[in-house]
Design a protein that fits this description.
The complex is a heterodimer. By secondary structure, chain A is mainly α. Chain A contains 14 helices and no strands. The radius of gyration of chain A is 24 Å and the shape is globular. The N and C termini of chain A lie close together (8 Å). Chain B has a domain of 207 residues: Dipeptide-binding Protein, Domain 3 (Dipeptide-binding Protein, domain 3), CATH 3.10.105. In chain B, strands 11, 12, 13, 14, 15, 16 and 17 form a 7-stranded mixed β-sheet that branches. A 4-stranded mixed β-sheet of chain B has the order 1-10-9-8. The longest helix of chain B has 24 residues. The N terminus of chain B is likely disordered. The chains are: A mainly alpha, B alpha+beta. At the A-B interface, α2, α3, α7 and α12 of A face α1, α7 and α14 of B.
Chain lengths: 315, 510
């Protein structure tokens, strides 16, 4: 197990380094710079160059890269060129929106998907199983922004039960903050549940057809007992994989929901800063997300090892 | 009994679902009065986030809508009828030769409690004089000295009369800030205006409250939140749900929706040229003049206007101006040297062999106001026989290739923005001139207009400049868009902005 963990750790460090270089080159390769955007269409090249010099954007790229990495390693994520706000503060502010949104969406998705996916698998071939499979297929096909708009129109505009969008800060009004998150979480959670139901249904079906489950049934266990006591551990492997991927996607990938509901989350911040070529804000924030994603994958890999001794022993 | 109990949740569910469906899809109800009316508050919607509030180095409309006149004031205000009223300066004198301006600064405090001093005024004017934003620095082209006379008086000396200087003192070029707070201008601009900025959260909101130090009457509404809602439909939904009280500036991508969803009937709809913008084609001056004229002839202005779906939103024009500028003319035979004539244009294109020339249409993809014209123009140009390809790029790349490209990498593009005619004068060391356009006659006409000493002379010279511009078929105006605002019917008092495009919060009241 130790060798397995060390190998995964080495992969984690390597992946972070490669990702840092990739994100640095991608944002620089997109063209344009923040100085030109700030100064507008009538600015002279001299004025733009002077501002770019103030921002340190005229230094050689390798120098900028090393400088950025060294600052990151010392805990300094840099600051916005335009507002001088620290990236750490910007990210912290946005995480107070993005983390509850992502985690609640995931939790809602799991709460719906695990029982429904299992039920659909146990009732395969029956009308109720087919109906759930159909509904989850429809859910997968529905774009999240469309779900968001529909929910906003229904519960916000027509019924007036919840805000159509916008954000109330936790410190100003915690209840208001929760109300701001209800519809975005519903939109995310329902669509995620539709995706997860299909995976869970498939994983459970797969396990239920295995010989060891059949053997368990033969020795007198009920279907539920056989599934929970013998099949669950094997069914968890693909589920852990897809949940790991969904967590990674949720942290930086909620941009559409944040746009539809006007939430000041991390994804929307990144999008705005890409458009403005705020390279330090984008690099540092995306780097944090990449580290998080790789870390989640690392945890998923460790879970594989715990759940399946064959994986850990083969390493 | 057990059967009854088992059925109850189903019945309850059915009743709840029916209630929801009825409420959701039933007829629209009359809008209730805003709860903010009794709380002395209002919530407005902004469509764009400026990213920075530093008005010295940025002239983004998203910034100019909220900060000037509300938080930071200019020296003077120009009223709609042409009169000049006090701002930071409580009085002023102008010498007969229009070369010396003496401003008496009022006894007042900034919103952070610091006293307004002559030194702050001199610092602010000098800062704007060296601003990288042309609209700010251009006002100071004739200024030779900015001096302190005494603790309440500042003298500005000019080398020649300048209309631009005086106009600038009532616009962003004349905004006054405290020198001591200049370092935080990007997130917390300070001024003497009726409101102070409590908090600005990028991509989220501006929060204003009445400035207790304000020298004038307190604004009617104490607390104002401007929620940044970049998705237009989300903004309209919030207005319809009563969560916000107004969307003072609606971009054209929403106009059709405003009509279809009857927002123009449920809310007070205000059209205003001051917050408007001209939309115009720019044809690279390197292109053969006959081809430029033929391209101008393919532009059916009514088609662009119709595409926006709201008759009240825009006027067809061939003049680079807005209807509130005195040299403006709507589209007519006299003011349009190259009216819509597709057949004539096609004939010229074929006869002169322009159909073989590859042309690139640079399309700014992340600005909805400009995607729609591109959707119409590119197929029309292709139908006219031109070999045009569309290059869709985002603002940062557009800035790099076109605004700062030397030479700019485009043949045709469509822009929307300031109606400031000075942006098309020939490039100078202070100004880039991205459009490639340079006409000595046009530049001279503007320079003569700037030194005009009477309104009549100024107007005649501006009309002359506008005529030169349209005949050159480089800057080809299509429509003059008006600002379109939607307000809760109980929210009154919207007035045309005095400082650039700023939405004057002080004037609004329940």
């Amino acid at each position: 197990m130790t060798i397995y963990v060390l190998r995964k750790l080495a992969f984690f460090v390597g992946a972070v380094l490669v990702a840092s270089l990739a994100i640095f080159l991608l944002i620089r390769g997109a063209g344009g710079n923040v100085a030109a955007i700030v100064l507008g269409k009538d600015a002279t090249a001299d004025a733009i160059n002077a501002l770019a010099h103030t921002y340190g954007l005229d230094r050689p790229l390798p120098v900028q890269y090393v400088d950025w990495i060294m600052n990151m390693l010392s805990g300094d994520l840099g600051q916005s060129f335009r507002t001088k706000e620290s990236v750490a503060d910007l990210v912290t502010d946005r995480l107070s929106v993005s983390v509850p949104l992502a985690l609640s969406g995931l939790l809602l998705g799991l709460i719906i998907a695990i029982p429904v996916g299992t039920y659909a698998a146990r009732n395969v071939g029956r009308p109720s199983g087919a109906l759930l499979a159909l509904l989850s297929q429809i859910g997968v096909a529905v774009p999240v922004f469309w779900a968001g708009i529909l929910l906003s129109v229904l519960f916000g505009v027509r019924l007036g039960w919840l805000p159509t969008g916008g954000w109330t800060d936790w410190t100003a009004d915690p209840v208001g903050a929760v109300r701001s998150l209800v519809l975005p979480v519903l939109s995310l959670g329902l669509i995620m549940a539709a995706v997860l139901i299909r995976y869970i249904r498939s994983a459970v079906l797969d396990v239920m057809n295995q010989d060891y489950v059949r053997t368990a049934r033969a020795v007198g266990m009920t279907r539920t007992q056989a599934l929970l006591q013998v099949g669950l551990r094997n069914a968890l492997l693909p589920i852990v994989t897809i949940v790991g991927l969904q967590i990674a996607e949720l942290i930086g990938g909620t941009v559409i929901i944040e746009m539809v509901f006007s939430l000041p989350g991390l994804s929307r911040m990144i999008l705005a800063n890409v458009a403005a070529r705020e390279v330090i804000v984008v690099q540092s924030t995306v780097m944090l997300i990449i580290v998080f994603v790789i870390f989640v994958n690392f945890v998923v890999d460790l879970l594989y090892g715990i759940l399946d001794p064959r994986i850990r022993n083969s390493a | 009994m057990p059967k009854l109990i088992a059925m109850q949740p189903k019945r309850l569910g059915a009743i709840a679902a029916a209630t929801i469906m009825l409420a959701a899809f039933g007829g629209a109800e009359a809008l209730a009065a805003s709860p903010r009316a009794t709380e002395n508050k209002m919530i407005l919607v902004a469509r764009q986030d400026p990213g920075t509030l530093d008005y010295v180095t940025s002239n983004l409309t998203a910034l100019r809508l909220w900060i000037p006149s509300n938080v930071v004031e200019p020296l003077v205000y120009f009223e709609k009828d042409g009169t000049v009223t006090p701002g930071v300066a409580e009085s002023w004198t102008i010498s007969d030769d229009r070369l010396t301006y003496v401003f008496t600064i009022r006894e007042a405090k900034f919103s952070n409690g610091a006293p307004l001093t002559v030194e702050d005024v001199i610092y602010s004017l000098n800062t704007m004089k060296s601003s990288p934003v042309l609209q700010n620095s251009a006002a100071y082209n004739a200024v030779t000295a900015i001096e302190k006379v005494d603790d309440r008086t500042v003298k500005v000396t000019l080398s020649r009369p300048s209309q631009a200087f005086w106009a600038g003192m009532g616009s962003t070029a004349g905004l006054i800030q405290p020198e001591a707070a200049a370092g935080s201008i990007a997130t917390d601009p300070i001024g003497t205006g009726p409101y102070k900025l409590v908090k600005y959260t990028t991509n989220s909101a501006f929060e204003f409250t009445a400035n207790p130090e304000y020298w004038g009457p307190a604004p009617a509404i104490k607390d104002v939140t401007v929620r940044i809602v970049t998705d237009g439909t989300a903004g309209l939904n919030a207005l319809e749900a009563g969560e916000v009280d107004a969307i003072p500036v609606n971009t054209i991508d929403l106009w059709e929706q405003l009509v279809k969803r009857e927002f123009d009937k449920k809310f007070t709809l205000v059209t205003d040229p001051q917050i408007g913008e001209p939309t115009y084609a720019v044809i690279n001056q390197k292109i053969d003049p006959e081809l430029r004229q033929a391209i101008a002839g393919t532009l059916d202005r009514q088609a662009y206007n119709d595409a926006f779906g709201a008759a009240w939103g825009a006027e067809n024009t061939c003049t680079f101006a807005l209807p509130n500028q005195p040299w403006y003319q709507p589209e007519n035979a006299e003011s349009c040297p190259y009216p819509y004539d597709l057949e004539g244009a096609m004939k010229t294109i074929l006869e002169k062999g322009f159909n073989t020339l590859p042309l690139e249409y640079a399309s700014l993809s992340d600005v909805p106001d400009l995607s729609l014209p591109a959707d119409i123009m590119v197929p029309t140009l292709q139908a006219a026989g031109l070999n045009v390809t569309r290059n869709a790029i985002d603002l940062a790349r557009y800035s790099q290739l076109i605004f700062q490209g030397r030479p700019p990498q485009f043949d045709i593009t469509v822009m929307s923005g300031d109606a400031e005619p000075g942006q098309w004068s020939c490039p100078t060391p202070d100004k880039a001139g991205w459009s490639t356009y340079c006409s000595a006659d046009y530049t001279d006409a503007l320079a003569q207009a700037d030194v005009a000493t009477s309104d009549e002379e100024y107007l005649a010279l501006m009309q002359k400049a506008a005529d030169i511009l349209r005949k050159d078929a480089v800057i080809v105006p299509l429509i003059a868009k008006k600002g379109v605002g939607l307000f809760d019917v109980d929210l009154k008092g919207f007035t045309e902005p005095k400082v650039a495009v700023a939405v004057e919060l002080r004037a609004l009241h329940w």
